[in-house]
Specification:
The protein is of the alpha/beta class. The chain contains 18 helices and 14 strands.
């Protein structure tokens, strides 16, 4: 980038002196530049201007790390970050035709995930134009898939409004009808092929008598086939032989990069049965976002039957000893799921109530990457606060324990084998957080419930004993 082209912007910000600008002194300019301006100077003019205008709120140390990237990698990183900034949306949409396919595919992940894209003027038409203009068949299909999801979300806005009106009026019959429709539209938006009978929630079932104490193991984000997954599985099996578990839970993203292709997928043998079968217990899974990335991913996991795996529906509830467990599907929480969970919690007579799913409600997360936390806090949290004892999750590939809020204790076990994520260990509410592989255990009787986090060697990290 020609530094002289940047001088008006730098001067207006009071960054460098007029004399330095006139001299064109590169050393002084470099010294006085902010990290954002240094990044902008390495980018094409239009992307650099967008970075200076909208790439705000990031810690300087994160921005400085960008400067080690090659120009192409830096542009991709900036475009990806801009795609999460609502004011930059129209620029990003217009710029995509000039970006390589690898960048567009990353941007499209934000387009279909971040809610604000639904209201971007001309977004559906823009995606259609991009699809028509690319010779790359895979990229064309990705543009069309994003367009389909945006259009369905736009249609669903009417349904969401009617649901809110029915809630306000207390019209239970209308709410039930609209909630069932919302469930269908959610599945249609995801593009998954999961028939209605697989979405029917079974009645609450029991796997252990109420007067028995229980011990379980839980892990999330694990099905990668990596050495890390094998290490965690081995530690779980060793611990299970020393102190037997009664059953297990999964916290979603059970298989990468997308869910199973069918109940006959060979990964069932290699990434599941061989690793966790030696425990000799049944797992009760929940769905993560990666299950929904394949047309048949969720359906294949619900259809699969084995002594080690029982998955009756996308969301369901069961009792074991003094605890009632509620498995939830958090990728998008339909109105039907909200109504079911609200009633299931209200009807529970168990001593302890534990909800588990994929996405966290509170997490050791950087503010800029926590959009899904806002969704979970708005959509799921009102159903849980003051009503259940614990929420267990994954999604962030790390292990964490957050402060209790309104009587609910929060544990994250996302280190089952997927590539690790960074954690913000000093974020508000963090008791323990580490980017490492591991798993958790839960022991409960009538008097107490203990939850503990372990590393990939089975060594304890953190624990809490809950009483009431």
């Amino acid at each position: 980038m020609d530094q002289a082209r940047r001088f008006p912007l730098l001067l207006s910000a009071g960054i460098i002196s007029f004399a330095a600008a006139c001299r064109g002194d590169p050393d002084e300019v470099a010294i006085k530049m902010t990290p954002v301006q240094e990044i902008a100077a390495k980018l094409p003019p239009e992307v650099g201007d967008a970075a200076e205008k909208w790439l705000t709120g990031y810690p300087d140390k994160d921005l400085k790390a960008f400067l080690a990237f090659s120009p192409a990698a830096l542009e991709q990183e900036v475009m990806q970050d801009l795609s999460h900034e609502p004011p930059a949306a129209e620029f990003v949409l217009g710029q995509m035709a000039r970006e390589p396919a690898s960048t567009d595919l990353l941007v499209l992940k934000a387009v279909v995930r971040d809610d604000f894209w639904v209201d971007v003027p001309g977004v559906a038409a823009g995606l259609q134009k991009l699809a028509e203009g690319t010779p790359d068949p895979d990229l064309m299909l990705a543009f069309l898939e994003a367009e389909r999801k945006i259009e369905i979300r736009q249609i669903r806005k009417t349904l969401t409004q009617r649901i809110a009106e029915a809630r306000q009026k207390g019209d239970a019959a209308a709410l039930k009808t609209l909630a069932a429709a919302d469930e269908r539209w959610v599945i249609t938006e995801r593009g998954a092929t999961i028939p209605g009978y697989m979405r029917r929630v079974p009645p609450v079932f029991s796997i252990m008598p109420a007067d028995k104490s229980i011990r379980l193991v839980g892990m999330g984000d694990f099905g990668s086939g990596t050495q890390a997954q094998r290490d965690v599985a081995s530690a779980i099996v060793r611990m299970g032989k020393e102190e037997p578990f009664n059953f297990g839970l999964t916290f979603g993203d059970n298989f990468y990069e997308v869910g199973m292709t069918s109940p006959e997928d060979p990964r069932w043998r290699d990434w599941w049965e061989k690793l966790y079968g030696p425990l000799g217990v049944t797992f009760y899974p929940s769905l993560g976002n990666h299950e929904w990335y394949a047309d048949d991913g969720a359906a294949a996991e619900i259809t699969y039957r084995s002594p080690t795996w029982f998955f009756p529906a996308p969301y369901y509830t069961f009792t074991a000893g003094p605890v009632q467990f509620f498995a939830v599907d958090t990728t998008e929480i339909s109105e039907a799921e909200v109504l079911w969970l609200d009633k299931a919690i209200a009807d529970s007579k168990s001593r302890w109530k534990v909800v588990y799913g994929h996405h966290p409600i509170f997490a050791p997360e950087r503010k800029k990457s926590g959009e899904y936390l806002q969704y979970m806090q708005a959509r799921l949290w009102p159903l849980l606060k003051g009503r259940v004892d614990a929420y267990l999750c994954g999604h962030q590939h790390a292990m964490a324990h957050m402060e209790a809020v309104d009587g609910v204790h929060f544990f994250m076990s996302g280190g089952g084998g997927g590539a690790l994520n960074k954690v913000a260990a000093k974020a508000a509410g963090v008791i323990f957080a580490e980017s490492t592989f591991g798993f958790l255990t839960l022991d409960a009787d009538q008097a107490s419930m203990a939850i503990a986090i372990f590393d990939a060697d089975g060594k304890p990290f953190d624990s809490e004993v809950i009483t009431k």
